[in-house]
Structures
1.
Amino acid sequence: MREHDAFGPATMRRGRRKFDDDDADFLKRGRLEPRLHEDPDLPDIGDNWSTWDGSLQGPDPRPDWVRTEHGAVDTELGILKTGKEADVFLVRRHVPDTGKNSLLAAKRYRDGEHRLFHRDAGYLEGRRVRRSRENRAMANRSSFGKQMIAGQWAAAEFDALGRLWQIGAETGLVRVPYPVQLIGTELMLEFIGDWETGEAAPRLAQVRSDTADLADLWQQMTDALSVLARAQVAHGDLSPYNTLVQDGKLVLIDLPQVVDVIGNPQGADFIARDVRNVAAWFVQRGLPVNADDLLERLLYEAGLK
Ligand SMILES: Nc1ncnc2c1ncn2[C@@H]1O[C@H](COP(=O)(O)OP(=O)(O)OP(=O)(O)O)[C@@H](O)[C@H]1O
Ligand SMILES: [Mg+2]
C-alpha cells in the first residue's frame, strides 16, 4: 500500500519542505511576511492554497479568526518543535490583500519507521477501530498499520480538543487550542502565542514562580482537571511541559492519549498520575497544594468513587 492511497494530502505534503535547520530560524530572520511571486496567478513563493476545504473541520461555534475563504493561502513559517512522535510547525493562513490573517500550529504525526511509541499499549485499551483490516494492520505493524496508528493519534487528539474546546467555550473552565482541521496525520490548531512575532507561549515549566500568580494558576489547573473528570477522561500525559501559559491563562495541549477513565481499567491511575505530575510542580515552587484531596474529589466527579 503506497502512502497516499490511505491518507491524503497531509502526508504527501510532508516531504515538500524541510525545516531541520535551526529551530526558530524564522524568528531570527524576523520575517512573517510572504515573498512575492512573479506569476500573479500563483500563491506567493512557499505558499499553498489553504487545505481547509478538504479537511475534517473543528467544532462550532467556530471562532471568527478561522479562515474559511477559498482564496486563503498557507505559508509555512518554520518549525516550532520536533518531538518523538510529532513535529509542530508554524503556519500562517491568510487571505491575500485583505488583512484577514491567522496563525496555526500544524502538528504532524510521524507515521514511518522513526516514530517512538512512548505512549504504551495501556492507553489503547478499550479503544477499537471498526474495520478488521485496519485492526490486523495495526496489530502486525505493517507500514499501512503504522500510518493507521499515527492517523488514530491525530484523530483522537482532534476529537479530544474539540470536546474540551466546546466545554471551555460554554463554561470558561478549561482552555485548549481550537482544533481548526484534521487531514490524515496532520492536525492544525490555533497557535497559542504572539500572532505578531510568531513566538509561542511558554510552557508552565518555564514560568518563573516569583512573577507568576501561583495560586491563580493552581486554581485554573484544578478547574481544568474537574472538567476532564466530569467528562470522564484523563489527559494521560499532563505535565508542566504539556501546559502553556498565555497571558496568565493555562492552556492544555498534547492530548492524543486522552484516556476514557470508565472504559480503561486503569482509569483512576491515569487521573492520579496527571494530578501528581502537576501538583509536584506547584509544591516545588512553594505552593503547598494537596494532591490527595484533589484526587479524591476528581475520582468522585468522574463517578469512580
Ligand atoms: N497550539 C500550539 N500553539 C503553540 N505552540 C504549540 C502548540 N501546540 C504545540 N506547541 C509547541 O510544540 C510543542 C510540542 O507539542 P506537543 O506537546 O503537542 O507535541 P509532542 O510531539 O507530544 O511533543 P513532546 O514529545 O515534546 O511532548 C509544545 O511544547 C509547544 O511548545
Ligand atoms: Mg508534549
Note: The chain has two domains: 3-190, 204-301.
2.
Amino acid sequence: MEKTTSLSIPRIKLGSQGLEVSRLGLGCMSMSGNYGPPKPEPEMIKLIRHAIDTGVTFLDTSDLYGPHINEILIGKAIKGIREKVQVATKFGIRFEVATKFGIRFEDGKRGICGEPAYVRACCEASLKRLDIDCIDLYYVHRIDTQLPIEVTMGELKKLVEEGKIKYIGLSEACASTIRRAHAVHPITAVQMEWSLWTRDLEEEVVPTCRELGIGIVPYSPLGRGFFSAGAKLIESLPEDDFRKSFPRFKPENFEHNKQVFEKLSLMAARKGCTPSQLALAWILHQGDDVCPIPGTTKINNFNANVGALSVILTAEDMKELESYASGDVVRAEAFEVLLAHLTNSICFSGGISAKLEGISSGLWQPLIKCVSIRGNDSSDASHLDIPKLTIHKFQELKECDISKAPISAASTSNPLR
Ligand SMILES: NC(=O)c1ccc[n+]([C@@H]2O[C@H](COP(=O)([O-])OP(=O)(O)OC[C@H]3O[C@@H](n4cnc5c(N)ncnc54)[C@H](OP(=O)(O)O)[C@@H]3O)[C@@H](O)[C@H]2O)c1
C-alpha cells in the first residue's frame, strides 16, 4: 500500500539567513554512479524536471558525484528554469593527481582539502559545470582537519561577498567545528547521515544546529535503500555498487539486520503506507528545520517519496519505530560510525587500514586496530571496549591535529573509552 499526495509541496526555511527550500529535497548522487552505473542522461533530466514540476526544488549534488558529471546533468536539467530551484553542491573531496595548492596526493587517491585556493577553484569549476552564476548552498563536503576551519570559511565568506555563492553549509562536521565555522560566517545548513539506523548526530550536532539556527539536511534517509527493499536490496546490488562493501550489508550482519526491515514493513502495513514512506515520515517528523534529501533514479519512487509527506506519526509511533533500529539492534554500527569519521579526516581510497598505517601518530593506533577488527581484517583489538566507543570520542580524535598529536597519547591512556 502506498500513500499518494496531490497536495502542493510545503516550503520551509533552512537556517536563519533566508534560504527557502521544498520540505523534501532530491538527492541526485546515484543518477551518476556509486549505486551501480550512471543512469541515462535523458531519463535523469526527465526525473529532475518532474521533481521540480511537482514542487521538489531543492537539488543535492557534489563535484564528487560522477565525478563532475552529476553537476553537468543538473546544469542541463535546470536550463531555463534556474530561478525555480535551489542548487546545493559540495567541494572538499578530491581524487585527481594533485600537487597544486601545496597539497600532495598519490595518483588517483582521494583527499580532503579546504585550502582557500582549492575552495575557489572548485567553486569556479562547479559554477561552470552547473552553468549558473551563483550556487544557492555550497557545502564543505568533508572537513580538512589539517587546516583550521576558519581558513576555509574565510574563503567561502569571500565567495558569498562576491556573489558566487549565496549560503554556506557543512557536511559531516562535529559540533565544535560547526560553532567555529558559524563564528566566521553564518552556516545555513549542516548535512549529515540521519535515518532510523544512523542517529549519532542527535547527541551533539542536532542540538548545536538548533541553538545556532542552522538547518539540518539528512542524507541517506532511506538507509541507502535498505528501508525501501530490505533483503531484496542486497540480493539485487550490481557488482559495481559501492554499498556491497558496507558492513551493515555484509551477509554476516545482514542476516541479523533484515529484521529491522521486517518490523518496519509490518508497521507500514498498519499505517497504510510503504516502508520507505514510513522511514521518510520518521525523519520528516524531526522538525521543520529538517529537510531530507532521499535519492532516487526513478519517477515512481520519487512520487512515492513525496507521498511520505502525508504520513502522520504519533509520539508512540515514533518511539516504536526507533526501537526497531536502536544501537544494539543494528550490527556493524560501530564500524560504520568509525569509518565515517575516519574518512572525514584522512585520505581514503578503499584500503583504509593501509592508508592509516602511513600515519605516525600513536594516537591513531587504537583506531587502526579497531578498524581492523570490525572490518574482519586482522585482530588485536581485544583490549578495546568497542561497545563503549562513543561518537563523542571519535569526534575528539577526528578534530585533533594528527601531525601534532603526542605520540604518548595512546600508550598512556586509551583515547577510545
Ligand atoms: N554529504 C554526504 O557525504 C552524502 C553521502 C551520501 C549521500 N548524500 C546525498 O544524499 C542523497 C540521498 O542519499 P542516498 O542516495 O545515499 O540514500 P537514500 O536516499 O537513503 O536511498 C537511496 C536508495 O533508495 C532507493 N529508493 C529511493 N526511494 C525509493 C522508493 N520509494 N522505493 C524503493 N526504493 C527507493 C534508491 O533506488 P532507486 O534509484 O531505484 O529509486 C536508492 O537505491 C544522495 O543522492 C546525495 O545527494 C550525501
Note: The first strand starts at residue 11 and ends at 14.
3.
Amino acid sequence: MTDETQNNAETHAADTPVEADYSAETLEAARVLFARPATFMMGAAKIEQLPAADLPEVTFAGRSNVGKSSLINALVGQNHLARASNEPGRTREVNFFVLDEKLRLVDLPGYGWAKASKAEVKKFQNLGRDYLRGRPNLKRAYLLIDARHGLKAVDNEPMDALDVAAVSYQIVLTKADKIKPHELKAVIEKTQAQIRKRPAAHPVVLATSSEKGHGIPELRAEIMTTCAVAP
Ligand SMILES: Nc1nc2c(ncn2[C@@H]2O[C@H](COP(=O)(O)OP(=O)(O)OP(=O)(O)O)[C@@H](O)[C@H]2O)c(=O)[nH]1
Ligand SMILES: [Mg+2]
C-alpha cells in the first residue's frame, strides 16, 4: 500500500464508511471516463430485442424505488438520462445506456412492487431475470439495497438466481444520505456478514448517495476496473 492509498483509506475510515480503496489515479481516470458522452441506446421489452453483446455491460438491479435510475444518472452526471421517479415501477423495460462507446450501463425494472397487475409484473420481472441469466458480456450486476432497510427477504430470490447462474454481483447501498454515518457503517458490516457465504457475491458492500454524491467516484472506479476499460 502506498502512502497515498493509506491516506485515502484513513480519510475514508474517518469521514465516510466507503469500504472500497482506490488510488487517486484510478479515481481520476474513472471521473474522466464517466464525464464522456453517455446516451440512451434503447429499451428492450422482450428478450429477443436485446442489443448485440458486443460491449462490456454492468447492470443495476433491485427493488422498485431503490434508486437504480437515479444511480445511473449520478454516475454519468446527467440528471435526466435514466427516468427516475417517486412512482414505483417507473422502469419497465431493460434500458441500455452507452458510455463513450466503451461500455453499457443497463437499467433493469425493479422487483417487489405490488401495485401493477400480476401479469404485468411477471412480464417485466421475467425479462430482468432472463437478461441477468443469459448475458455473456455482463461483467457484473450491482444489486441495489436501500441503506435504511438493508437486505430483506424479497432480495434473496435475485441473489439465489445470481449465485446459481454464477453471475458476479456486488451489493450497493443507496440513499446513504438518509441515515447517520454510524448507522451506515453498521448496515455495511451487517450486509457483508449476511452475504459472506454467497458464492457469486463480491465481499465488499459499497455505499452511495445519488443525491449527495457519496460513493459515486468509487463506484465509477469499480465499474471501470470491472469492465477493463480506460478513458
Ligand atoms: N435522498 C435520496 N433519494 C434518492 C436517492 N436515490 C434515489 N432517490 C429517490 O428515490 C426515488 C426512486 O428513485 P428511482 O431512481 O426512480 O428508483 P428505481 O430503482 O429506478 O425505481 P423503479 O424504476 O421503479 O424500479 C426517487 O424519488 C429518487 O429521487 C438518494 O441517493 N438519496
Ligand atoms: Mg427506474
Note: Residues 118-133 form the longest helix (16 residues).
